[in-house]
Design a protein that fits this description.
Length: 281
């Protein structure tokens, strides 16, 4: 093979690789089926409403971008969340014994070593989206795994509006920004809805205050690196002042209840309640 042929063959291999990889990273990807494939196999076990085992893969698979009701799974003192068994049964009905494809997100594994994957069934059904539509999970994104939030929120809204699955249980209902009520939810994952009374930026950090007293009322905080993520997404968090929004995350206590916002997808500003809708628990 002469040098010209070697160069041509090299270019063919490189261009073929680019062609195969490009769809997985294209900016307009709107389906997990276009993402890189981690593996394929038959589902052999369903651990809970968001964790499965697949034949030929020796670690647990965690369905990324959703949170289903949790089971103790051997954790001492951990209380089963309401409807956890039903959520597991719903996932079992969808995938047990079925062939599935695991598509990788931005971060391939969680801190427990589990594979993080978007799960697509052999007939093309996107399992995360279906679980949300059926009402057996909530949207649960991370700064390093936040694709497809718009589609996932749409499926969640459909279930919540219809009162399906977990949305029929007060344990999972959307909370108001009432600080006294939220004090009971410290340490738990919640979806909180309210009007942003004041938005301020202090030393690079944005504070979305849902009451007149920032020392006691509910606040969503956006650290500087997350503010930059908002900017890259053409979102000005200060412009949320006066708007009713939903913010989701774990509630902590610091001058009243707080949720830390690490990425724009934690805030759903497109799903606002009717004027005067009652949200108190």
């Amino acid at each position: 093979m002469d040098s010209g042929q070697r160069i041509s063959r090299f270019l063919f291999v490189v261009l073929s690789a680019v062609w195969l990889v490009w769809p997985a990273y294209a900016a307009d990807v709107d389906s997990p089926a276009a993402l890189p494939v981690f593996g394929r196999g038959v589902v052999t076990d369903v651990i809970d409403g968001a964790v499965i085992r697949v034949e030929g893969i020796d670690v647990d698979i965690r369905l990324v971008s959703i949170q289903a009701p949790k089971l103790p799974k051997g954790r001492i003192g951990f209380k089963t969340w309401p409807l956890a068994d039903e959520a597991r049964e719903a996932l079992t009905a969808l995938v047990q014994g079925r062939s599935v494809t695991l598509h990788s997100g931005t971060t391939p594994r969680d801190r427990n070593g589990r594979v993080l994957a978007y799960l697509v069934r052999d007939d093309g059904l996107w399992i995360q989206q279906e679980l949300l539509r059926l009402g057996w999970a909530r949207v649960y994104t991370f700064a390093d795994n936040r694709r497809f939030a718009a589609q996932l929120y749409e499926a969640e809204r459909d279930a919540r509006t219809a009162g399906r699955g977990i949305w029929a249980n007060p344990y999972y209902e959307v909370r108001s920004a009432n600080p006294e009520a939220l004090a009971r939810d410290v340490g738990t994952f919640q979806v909180v809805e309210g009007r942003v009374i004041d938005a301020a930026k202090v030393r690079g950090r944005v504070f979305l205050n849902f009451g007149d007293d920032y020392r006691t009322d509910f606040t969503a905080t956006i650290p500087p690196d997350a503010v930059r993520a908002f900017t890259r997404s053409d979102i000005d968090p200060l412009a949320l002042e006066g708007h009713v929004i939903r913010v989701r995350g774990y509630v902590r206590d610091y001058n009243g209840p707080v949720i830390d916002v690490t990425h724009p997808e934690q805030i759903d500003a497109d799903d606002r309640p009717e004027q005067g809708a009652a949200l108190d628990r």
